[in-house]
Amino acid sequence: MIFIYNTLALILSPVLGVLAVIYYIRRPHKRPFLLSRFGLGSPPPPVFPRDQLVIWVHALSVGELTSSMALINAIKKRYPRASVLVSTTTLSGYELAKKSLEGSTTTLIPFPIDFYPVVRRYINRVKPDLFVLVETDFWPNFLSLLTKNHIPAILVNGRISDRSIRKYRYFSFWFRSLFDAFTLLCMQTRRDAEKVSSLGINPQKIFTLGNLKHTSKQASDPILGTVKRPTSFPDDKLIIICGSTHEGEEKIILDAVTMLAENAQYRPPGDSTAPYFKKRSTD
Q1: CATH number assigned to the domain comprising residue 151
Q2: Measured distance CA(200)–CA(39) in Å, rounded
Q3: Reported pTM
Q4: In terms of residue numbers, what domain contains 131?
């Protein structure tokens, strides 16, 4: 199956290359990040001393990175002499990681594009002793080369939606091999574990360990530690929190909030004499 995957990637590479060029011409701020994912920019794939344990933690974007910070800190505390490498797939995740890991000894890189020569170069240079994937972002070449090089891979905070599991089961001949590449599959809920098991994965490698977002302590997480406690919010103010937004969505949200503010008034908690939003008179 990996041969078919790489053959299709090779055939489609000219088209994908043109689309990528068009995309990044329109978004010049993302060009350096894309070059780095091909191993051509800065930072390059790192090389670590061979007498040190190398642990590679990968988080897709901002949400996954937030979940992984307490885990990364725990790994560094448990293995203080280990080299810890963190990677992200998105630029937003990478920029947040730079701020969150500033001043630490952790190495940060963009995650390589899943093109066989690129992935092979990264793995051959980094030579990780362990790969930890947070939640999602499965790539066939990367997982296949980890298996080929006898590098254990662990999925943590794993989750599978009902929509995804239907796709996985329909193409089980393909996705079973991806999940089988992991040494351990640590899922968020028992239901998630059951979904993985239904694909024919060895149940002995499947565990239910809960959600990292729920079990992480605020004090040990440098990201959550910067957020005010809910008790500090004014009782007479409406607080709207929007997370994991994409480019352009903030304007839509602000326009909607502005419209609500112009046409309604907020009732503070405890006031049962009026509905939360009351239409203002247009007279």
Answers
A1: 3.40.50.11720
A2: 36
A3: 0.75
A4: 36-226
